[in-house]
């Protein structure tokens, strides 16, 4: 067998500068959307115990300064974190507000240790959802940090050797965990959440009944968390470079989801992207599950309205319509849906090709 080495694709950053490593690109040039003033400050909410809130804030405040890279023979693997500040790196800063801090009493979480695993997870999610409900009503919040409770069973993290991260870690036992259940429950909120373990901001922490986890170095942890926060707050840290002629194409993905009551199926939306990865989301009308294939489908009118609204948003954002739309849907297409989608494209004088047919 003859191995083939593929070149790293370049990524685009502020001012059109390019680099193959996202970390070097952000540190040297700034994020791809450096001119977007909306993400120069990120207003962060936090849910957790009072001690977790204070400890997490203290660590994140420390991340405003440069964090040295790990000293390793694998020099290119470890990159210094430039600090999350308006004058460096992401060119952005985190903003705290006591109104956006939702403390959960430690004694309420300690009671989880006496419950069966699934009961403990359910009870913990209910505690956190109650606080997320409050934060979702706050107008000045961009993203919510969730400090994971310490008194819960969790899916074991793959034990990756930091000196050989390319080696595949042994599989972990597939079990429901707090992260998965809370993520599902939080899909209805307008603000994204970021769940964080205590070991991320407290390297001396040892889980209850467990061994001290093997951690990534502090600079890498800072890179990973702040990249996630920046992206979830609406920022674009980097993008794939494209020729300007490629921007004539638009990609629309239609997906479905159930509401919080699990009874009403809606179009999660058309997720609209150009080839640079710039995107937006448009919510559509309610869908119905077909008795024939048990898949969600739209009426002709709703399919028309969804694509027409998506193209309208695209035009408002980019100041022009695309010449071509590539449409993909997570369920198969009915004749009525096809007619509706094609009619919307025809009315805008746009080529709807190719359509990705799903079975």
UniProtKB/TrEMBL annotation:
Q: Which GO terms describe its molecular function?
A: nucleic acid binding
The protein's superkingdom reads Bacteria
Alphabetical list of Gene3D superfamilies matching this protein: Ribonuclease H-like superfamily/Ribonuclease H
The protein's name in its UniProt record: Piwi domain-containing protein
Higher taxonomy = Bacteria, Bacillati, Actinomycetota, Actinomycetes, Kitasatosporales
């Amino acid at each position: 067998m003859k191995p083939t080495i593929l070149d790293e694709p370049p990524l685009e950053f502020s001012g059109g500068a390019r680099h193959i490593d996202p970390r070097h690109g952000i540190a040297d040039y700034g994020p791809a959307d450096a001119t977007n003033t909306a993400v120069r400050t990120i207003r962060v909410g936090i849910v957790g115990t009072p001690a977790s809130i204070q400890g997490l804030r203290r660590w994140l405040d420390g991340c405003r300064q440069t964090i040295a890279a790990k000293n390793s023979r694998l020099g290119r693997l470890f990159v210094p974190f430039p600090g999350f500040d308006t004058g460096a790196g992401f060119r952005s800063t985190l903003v705290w507000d006591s109104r956006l801090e939702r403390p959960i009493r430690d004694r309420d979480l300690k009671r989880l240790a006496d419950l069966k695993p699934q009961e403990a997870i359910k009870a913990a999610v209910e505690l956190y959802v109650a606080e997320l409900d409050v934060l979702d009503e706050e107008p000045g919040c961009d993203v919510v940090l969730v400090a994971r409770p310490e008194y819960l069973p969790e899916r074991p993290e793959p034990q990756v050797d930091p000196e050989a991260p390319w080696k595949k870690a042994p599989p972990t036992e597939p079990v429901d965990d707090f992260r998965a259940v809370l993520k599902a429950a939080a899909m209805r909120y307008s603000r994204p959440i970021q769940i964080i373990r205590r070991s991320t901001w407290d390297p001396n922490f040892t889980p209850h009944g467990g061994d001290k986890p093997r951690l990534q170095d502090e600079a890498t942890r800072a890179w990973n968390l702040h990249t996630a926060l920046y992206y979830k707050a609406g920022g674009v840290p980097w993008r794939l470079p494209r020729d300007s002629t490629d921007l004539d194409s638009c990609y629309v993905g239609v997906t479905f989801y159930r509401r919080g009551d699990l009874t009403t199926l809606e179009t999660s939306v058309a997720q609209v992207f150009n080839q640079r990865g710039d995107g937006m989301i448009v919510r559509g009308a309610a869908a119905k599950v077909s008795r024939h294939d048990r898949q969600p489908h739209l009426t002709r009118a709703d399919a028309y309205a969804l694509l027409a609204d998506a193209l309208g948003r695209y035009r408002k954002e980019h100041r022009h319509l695309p010449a071509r739309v590539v449409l993909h849907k997570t369920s198969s297409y009915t004749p009525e849906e096809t007619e509706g989608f094609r009619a919307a494209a025809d009315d805008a004088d746009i080529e709807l090709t190719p359509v990705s047919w799903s079975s």
